[in-house]
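pasting for the record
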Amino acid sequence: MTISDARGTHHALNHRAQRIISLVPSATETLHRLGLANRIVGVTRFCVHPDPWVKSVPKVGGTKDIDLDRILALKPDLVVGNCEENTLEIFEAIEPHVPIWAPLPKNIPEAITDIGHLGQLTGTQAQAEEFQQQATKAWQEAKDSAQPFTYAYFIWQDPWMSISNDTFIARMLEAVGGVNVFGDHPDRFPEIDMSGHITAIPDVVFLSSEPFPFKEKHRDALCVMTGIPPENVRFIDGEYASWHGHRMIAGLSYLAQRTPNNWDRTPPR
């Protein structure tokens, strides 16, 4: 039996990975939650969960600037990547030496499926299935209690960049009732002209903590440029919106608590 990743690369399931390197922060956390701490031999410098365990794991560079010699020296039999986090050049450098599993979930069902695939690749199917059930339940609960609201979600400043509906973040927010004002943009991560007022002011503007660390000064600048009231702007922990894998279980509840309907019960920061 084989399974395929987002690149169409086939992976045989006749070998349980014993030495795993993760090039994706969300995958590192999920692999650890699957009980694989003693089989994870390398991670990136951006892998920060769970702490303090992750600090003791050898680092193999960043998500886009790996140390190939370091990776090969660790003798992995599986590298877990992601088609959005990592580059084609990274895959081409590693793949002649080590199999790479590289998904690209753009919605919640795909992310749930990927958890199952990780379980199959590592022989942790029972725990992966439990996480899949938890994620499915959290998704259904989010949808059942969702009330519609419009939003803009920014991931970068200078240039200001947002998201389209062709992203995992947008589908997470959709589950809690979010309607993306830039949802139909042809680019997945569009640059937004902030020189004038946004035509339709959204109910909420989310400023993510990653990949750009938005601060109060950026909120203030946005409000001046667009005319959006400061009370419509909310800072958000981007890990709960953008990390697939195990983190999305808590992420759906986190996002639901930060919708306009729940503002009276949630701190602005």
